[in-house]
Design goal:
69% helix
Amino acid sequence: MNDSVFKNNDTEKESKMTTEQSSGERKPQKTKTIYRGGASEAVYGLGLIGAWVYYIAHATTFWVGVLGILKGIVWPAMLVFEALKALNM
């Protein structure tokens, strides 16, 4: 009689185990993205806002203000260009 008790327990365990996900049915894991270089992005962002304030405050017409917004986006390139020009490089 003990054998039948063990067999029943085994079949119950098997039926419980089949309801769980098997190793072949795993859900795909999300990849975690880590952004680095936040300090340089903050400095660029503050410089961008400062350049926009400067160029828009000095704009005399609407289109000069639009040009100021575009200049505000590329101000680091203009800064490096002017620095190299001043150093005769």
